[in-house]
Write a structure and sequence with these properties.
Elements: E1 2-12, H1 24-43, E2 47-52, E3 61-63, E4 71-73, E5 83-91, H2 95-106, E6 118-124
Antiparallel strand pairs: 1-5, 1-6, 2-5, 3-4
Length: 132
């Protein structure tokens, strides 16, 4: 079963300090944790993909009607300090294992090494209906 674990920047249960205000050592520890988690999931054969995403200031909204040129804008975006920061796609044996991995990711270290308690959304990937 494949799941997407969605990491939202700015939403954390135990840390309200923006990463830009962390010490360089804390940022390095956080990134090293993320690398180690990826290596663990790879070694277990569970990691399909994982990526960090650029901030919303680099995002674009595209809409098209299929007849004319697409419309590309840099918004609208909700007035919020939260944004999609990255994701993991995992292929695991059960929903419980996906939740275990999300819990590991949520406890990534923040300032002073304390777990930040990030909110990680766990979503099953859908497949197309079977063709007859």
């Amino acid at each position: 079963m494949k799941y997407m674990l969605i990491k939202t920047y700015g939403a954390a249960a135990h840390c309200d300090t923006p990463i830009g205000e962390w010490s360089p050592e804390d940022i390095v520890a956080h990134i090293e944790f993320q690398k180690a988690l990826g290596e663990l999931l790879s070694a277990n054969g569970e990691l399909v993909d994982a990526q960090g995403l650029a901030g919303p200031e680099e995002a674009r909204i595209v809409s098209a009607d299929g007849r004319t040129a697409p419309v590309v804008t840099d918004g609208p975006f909700p007035e919020t300090k939260e944004f999609l920061a990255g994701y993991w796609i995992v292929d695991v044996d059960s929903p419980e294992r996906a939740v275990e991995i999300a819990a590991l990711a949520s406890a990534a270290p923040g300032p002073g090494g304390a777990p930040i308690g990030e909110y990680i959304q766990v979503r099953a990937l859908m497949s197309a209906p079977a063709q007859e």
